[in-house]
Amino acid sequence: MLFNSYVFMLAFLPLTLLGYFLLGRLPEKNQLNKVFLVLASFLFYGYNNPSYVPIIAGSILVNYALSQLMLTREKKAVRLPLMLLGLFLNLGVLFYFKYHDFFFENLNGAFGLHLTLNRLALPLGISFFTFQQLSYVIDSYKRTVPRYNILDYALFVTFFPQLIAGPIVLHSEIVPQFADAQNRHFNFDNFAPGLYAFARGLMKKVVIADTFAVAVEAGFASAQTLNTAEAWFVAIGYTLQLYFDFSGYCDMATGVGLMFNIKIPINFNSPYKSLNIREFWQRWHITLSRFLTTYIYFPLGGSRKGMARTCVNLMIVFLLSGLWHGAGWLFLLWGLMHGAASVLYRLFRKPYDRLHPALQWLINFGFIVVAWVFFRATSLTDALAIVKSMLMMNFGPLRDSITSAFALPGGFHEGYNAIYMMIWYAASLFACLGLRNTYEKTMDFHPTLCNALTTVLMIVYCTLSLSSVSVFLYFNF
Amino acid sequence: MNRKKWAALTLSLLGLSIGGTVALVAAVDPFEVYHKATAFIPPISNGTQIYSNAGIAKNYAYDSVVIGSSMTENFRPSQLDRLFGGQFVKLCVNAGSSFNHKQMMDMAFATHDVRRVLYGVDVEALTYFYKTPKCEMPDYLYDDNLFNDVSYWFNKSVLLTYIPECLATLGQSDPDQLDTMYSWGDLYAYGREAVLADVSFSRDTVEQINAEAGLSQQTKLNVEHNFLPFVEQHPDTQFIFFFPPYSAAHWYQFYTQGQMEYHLQQKKALAEALLPYDNVEIYDFQARTEWICDLNQYIDAKHYGPDINDAMAEEMAAGLSRVTDAAQLEANNDVIRALAAQIVEAGDWPF
Fold this sequence. Notes:
The complex is a heterodimer.
Chain A: H1 6-23, H2 32-46, H3 53-71, H4 76-111, H5 126-141, H6 150-158, H7 171-179, H8 188-221, H9 228-259, H10 277-283, H11 286-300, H12 307-325, H13 329-347, H14 349-354, H15 357-376, H16 380-391, H17 400-403, H18 417-434, H19 438-443, H20 449-464
Helix pairs in contact in A: 1-2, 2-6, 3-4, 3-5, 4-5, 6-7, 8-9, 8-20, 9-15, 9-16, 11-12, 12-13, 13-15, 15-16
Chain B: H1 3-28, H2 49-59, E1 64-67, H3 77-84, E2 88-90, H4 98-111, E3 116-120, H5 123-126, H6 139-142, H7 150-153, H8 156-168, H9 177-180, H10 192-196, H11 217-233, E4 238-243, H12 248-256, H13 260-274, E5 280-284, H14 289-292, H15 306-318, E6 322-323, H16 326-346
Helix pairs in contact in B: 2-4, 3-15, 4-11, 11-13, 12-16, 13-16
């Protein structure tokens, strides 16, 4: 199920809140409210494709069993194979659904084999719930975590606001909050900022990201023929689209979480305000960085084994990050680019940090924009064509398929679409760079008439944007 | 204000907005899916045809329907009423597939006692995928499920474009709308220059594929799912199928794509499948050389003007140009083959 859908906003969310808090009024020991929430979360997960439900259910049961076994065994010799089994099963399932075809395609290509691809659809959120559970499994091996009952564990994994696209929450962040008896009861003090955050996240996704998406799609489809101006607008357009889409989604997750009295960790902290690549990764997809740092970077030695080893560790982390984002060479290349940039920053940090902040920002943002081109492009040739165009100083008019995405409703004064486009870009960049982000504003929420009205307007406008009348005029037959 | 008041205010306003929006759309109902428009002129146009047709099919008074693509959009129900004695509405779907036309007929039969179906058969729609509409359809307007009407109630275009259009014509009515809706005859230029602009001629002979196709797989499925069920389940309804007169240039275009024989075969196969039924009449206007060789009747290789629609209506009401066996249809097909051969030999438009 999607947050930005009628069924979620008009039916699922109100009914789930109602059910959860009504059941919460039962005596404190009664866990029916959590059972209800787990079932609702499975409904949320399986709504668009019920066949995914057995996968996540199976994943939960197996991981829970392994964790509990490890937590009740003293001997490392018993725990280690269990942990390895857990790693193997989790990563194996992830490999099977996400990376199998990519791996086999390349084997076929490299060695002339004819291995069959399984062409499976990727179960929703598998990268997220796999990593989320891996953290508990690994920590269970280390016996640094408490034992949870199956209900609490299932709720931690399936809690629907963070189920499909993160943030990657830690059990220690979620389970205690559900255990807190106070949180069983509906609380306006949380609901209000929750609704506020949800509205803003919805607006970021439905209005801002989806508008840039139209221009970006047109741009990447014409990757080979863009002029310099178009290439820059398309690249920056994607930079903005991705941020508003993903952070908007996380804002909605945060907002919905708050409605249930659960504080979900921040995932985006105005990343485009960063002055260097290290700061960027402390602000972008924070929970992923946290996971990779905790479970890959630190175990490899982090920065404690000399500069050379640090650089190697950084490259490994970023390559894995690239791979996590998608099964494709371009994702790996993007990871490689960010790894290289991180290494360079590590090596030349002192002179870099002495540069004027404006210059630091420019270098950093410019790099990020270019790297996103590789992330988004459907082929290396397309990516290179766009980047080349960005550098060629071959300025020209902006094509309609790009500017029309920013047309006014009703097509008023279409001749000025390029100008509206400038305004969109300027306003969006200003928002990213000059305003507080939604998370900050939510944590510092003050109820006013003004933000009540804007919240209503945002939700109403976004709900209306879910459906439109498409004008079809064909004369084919 | 405190957070509780803020939440109460916000939720109340949201509730009011939701309720108010639903009430507004239900009351104004630009696509007439709840009730026929009486207080304003409904915004019916070719571009939003698939939306308006739902309302017309459900809530207009009629006992006869016009089904088909742009080949049928220029018909005039007032003339058809006079000629056939019924009450016609147009449920055309421009560029529609056979599945689209089935959707229209389903709606009509489900809501009205339909006595006549006037159906213009496009050879290309006949061989197109039988379950595929021409585009994503607003199915929520065509079914009985009130819940999915949310896509109609909370719809940016409905609220910001179409309801204002309705309100702008408040108090007005257009008695000719049934005739003029979807008609495009006056909007384009006719004649040789317009028609031949997109046609390139050569003397090359082109191998015709599937020349002995008989009933192809998709035609068979179309006949089975989109034609026969209506004919069989409504024995008291008169089905008037006609093959529209594309210009000879369009048949030449089919020829250059190697498709001419295929379409002629499928056309014949459809006729053979439908002719046995008593409630079916089939008319073939495709070999009418006085029309199809006269480019002044056309805006492009395929689309003829309303004069031809009027003429076809007159003929069908009088039973002229009717095909009662496959041999007659094949004779017409031979005329088309001969015209195509003439064009190939001339390497240009020779008429």
